[in-house]
Task: inverse folding
């Protein structure tokens, strides 16, 4: 496709930031599930055994936290909620059935993307905080048994939430044709932009 038909959506730095986040979340889900239930213990083989999995899991969590922090500061202003998002959410049925004509034109992100963004922001913060409380090798002396018990529950519940949101995020990225290339090549077609994010498209083509 000629370069005239595409619009730039992400810089290389933003894409590297995104993929570091994605890979660390997948590794955390696999190592975390291995530690979560004996029936999933076989997953420790991916990380060099039980002790290695326990040792490495929190460090990958640190990578995820700081890498997501990067995404947060890059994108949070674009994810602020506005009235059009409420209208969009109320008409989700029309969106899913590909009848978006009557709906407000969208900026860079739709309400679904924004909910994914804020959902992951809250859950990753809680995962990091509760994870530190459970990281006995360094912080054992600073927390009580009761705090650890509460953190274990919060940590597990937030992990389930983050994995579910991740599944929705990936499903949407594949389902809305032409979206994946935004994060692989950094650009999207003009047609995609016009159809899904018209207000953003108008701003982009208006730029010098
Ligand atoms: C294999 C896994 C993943 C795939 C295939 C994927 C795919 C994508 C794609 C295609 C976009 C561009 C959407 C657009 O510009 O309209 C995107 C944006 C984004 N992704 Fe992912 N992603 C993955 C994992 C993750 C994970 C694990 C996180 C965070 C925990 C994440 C957070 C984000 C954020 C914050 C954006 C920017 C959109 C926004 O701010 O709402 N992604 N992703």
Result:
């Amino acid at each position: 496709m000629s370069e005239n038909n595409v619009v730039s959506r992400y810089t290389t730095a933003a894409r590297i930031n995104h993929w570091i986040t994605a890979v660390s979340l997948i590794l955390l889900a696999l190592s975390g599930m291995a530690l979560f239930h004996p029936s999933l213990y076989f997953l420790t083989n991916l990380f060099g055994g039980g002790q290695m999995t326990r040792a490495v899991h929190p460090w990958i969590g640190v990578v995820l936290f700081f890498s997501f922090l990067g995404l947060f500061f890059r994108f949070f202003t674009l994810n602020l909620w506005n009235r059009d998002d409420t209208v969009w959410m109320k008409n989700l049925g029309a969106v899913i059935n590909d009848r978006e004509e009557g709906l407000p034109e969208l900026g860079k992100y739709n309400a679904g993307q924004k909910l994914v963004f804020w959902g992951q922001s809250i859950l990753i913060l809680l995962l990091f905080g509760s994870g530190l409380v459970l990281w006995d090798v360094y912080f054992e002396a600073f927390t009580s048994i009761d705090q650890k018990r509460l953190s274990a529950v919060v940590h597990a519940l937030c992990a389930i939430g983050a994995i579910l949101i991740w599944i929705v995020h990936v499903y949407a990225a594949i389902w809305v044709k032409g979206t994946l290339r935004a994060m692989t090549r950094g650009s999207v077609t003009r047609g995609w932009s016009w159809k899904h994010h018209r207000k953003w498209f108008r701003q982009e083509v208006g730029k010098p």
